[in-house]
Amino acid sequence: NFSMDNEVRSSFIQRRLRSQERREMQREILSILGLPHRPRPHVHTKHNAAPMFMLDLYNTISTDAEPHGYSYYKPALPTQASPMVTSQDSRFLDDADMVMSFVNLVEQDQDLLHQQHRREFRFDLSRIPEGEAVTAAEFRIYKDFVQERYENETFIVSIYQVLQAPSNSEVELLLLDQRDIWAAEEGWLVFDLTPTSNLWLVKPEQNLGLQLVLEDSHGHRRNPRLAGLVTGTGPQDKQPFMVAFFKASEVRFRSIR
Amino acid sequence: SAHGSKGRQSNRSKPQRTVQDALKAVEAATDNLGFSKEGCKKHELYVSFRDLGWQDWIIAPEGYAAYYCEGECAFPLNSYMNATNHAIVQTLVHFINPETVPKPCCAPTQLHGISVLYFDDSSNVILKKYRNMVVRACGCH
């Protein structure tokens, strides 16, 4: 002789979790998320270029999902000068199960010490979960507006894959992509890294990084900074990074718990 | 019948009468009790990543509305949400043999995914889609 509502409520025990239970619950949710443990990022800021770009992608997905009737919390976003997500990125995103951005591992000082007219970039792809295949990958670098005296000049930006380590002998390079830019241009330059990423996944020992070379209209190598390329030093939200889109190539089962 | 062999051995017209009798009895009982049963419904459930203390590595979302399904799958089932044909039959059989056959279960019939954006140990950022994380609709199974 009781209401059904009370019956429903009484089946749930409401109490505060003990710390051990809390840890176990966190462990179970991490397992559902496919993570072996809680990530502990050592250095990070949500206002770096890569997290901001990824947040843009996240919001693209969230906006697409809303008309279907469910919604979830959307964080207050840092505003940015120019949109980072292109229509091509949106297409890659539709097809992807996972997107991952990679920070540049080459330290600024080390980079400046060795090169004046080229810049090196390295990305660690070893942490990609098994069973994920790269469907697209990009290297993204920001180009700022440059001083007036170069305003009418054009430059050629070339991205090379390093084939041989510099310590062995002469550096061997493979041209991946090239772009003509105006000095007055401003915004993100995007270079295709899809075949290179696939190679690096299969043969990690061949991941010796990328080199960027800047040439002026006369074919002379110039310092990338001259064209406004933000390579190492510069604002956090304009730092270069790599992004890869993945599709799960196999169905993964959770382990029995 | 909950016990297949016994059912097949009995007179064909007898189970038919039994079901009809059971339905009438349930209708009468429901009317007499005079309370409205809480049917199978979608209820609010918010999973907070912030409450888990994960805001240092999860960039977005702060949490998400997961919902859950709860409520009785009771006769007449077609007045509730999304009952399968089998659930309706199971309800009828439950009336006849409540000790052996339970009522159908209230469970999700449609689920949706969420996307989670987080840092890994190397401060790389991962955006991953997880399927079947949000209840979109409930029903009796």
- What string, H for helix and E for strand, traces the elements of chain A in order? HHHHEHEEEEEHEEEE
- Global mean pLDDT of chain B: 80
Number of strands of chain B: 7
Main sheet makeup of chain A: 5 strands, antiparallel
How many DSSP-defined strands of chain A?
A: 10
Beta-strand fraction estimate of chain A: 25-35%
Radius of gyration of chain A, in angstroms, nearest whole number: 23 Å
Strand content of chain B: 25-35%
Helix content range of chain A: 10-25%
Gross morphology of chain A is elongated
Q: Biggest interface in this structure?
A: A-B, 45 and 37 residues
List the helices and strands and how they pair.
The complex is a heterodimer of chains A (257) and B (141).
Chain A lengths: L3 H7 L8 H14 L16 H17 L21 H9 L2 E6 L4 H7 L3 E4 L10 E12 L10 E9 L10 E10 L4 E6 L1 H9 L7 E7 L4 E2 L6 E2 L10 E8 L9
Antiparallel strand pairs in A: 1-10, 2-7, 3-6, 3-9, 3-10, 4-5, 4-7, 7-8
Chain B lengths: L3 H6 L3 H21 L7 E3 L2 E3 L9 E3 L2 E3 L2 E3 L14 H12 L9 E14 L5 E16 L1
Antiparallel strand pairs in B: 1-5, 2-4, 3-6, 6-7
Helix pairs in contact in B: 2-3
How would you describe this protein?
The complex is a heterodimer of chains A (257) and B (141). Chain A is an alpha+beta fold and 257 residues long. Chain A has 6 helices and 10 strands. Chain A is elongated, with a radius of gyration of 23 Å. Mean pLDDT of chain A is 80; it is low at 1-8 and 66-82. By secondary structure, chain B is of the alpha+beta class. Chain B has 3 helices and 7 strands; from the N terminus they run ααβββββαββ. In chain B, strands 3-6-7 form a 3-stranded antiparallel β-sheet, with no helix packed on it. The longest helix of chain B has 21 residues, at 13-33. Chain A binds chain B through residues 3-5, 8, 25-26, 29, 32-34, 38-44, 46, 50-51, 54-55, 57-58, 61-62, 65, 68-75, 96-103, 124, 127, and chain B through 35, 37-38, 52, 54, 56-57, 59-65, 70-72, 112, 114-130, 134, 136. Strand 1 (98-103) of chain A pairs antiparallel with strand 7 (125-140) of chain B.
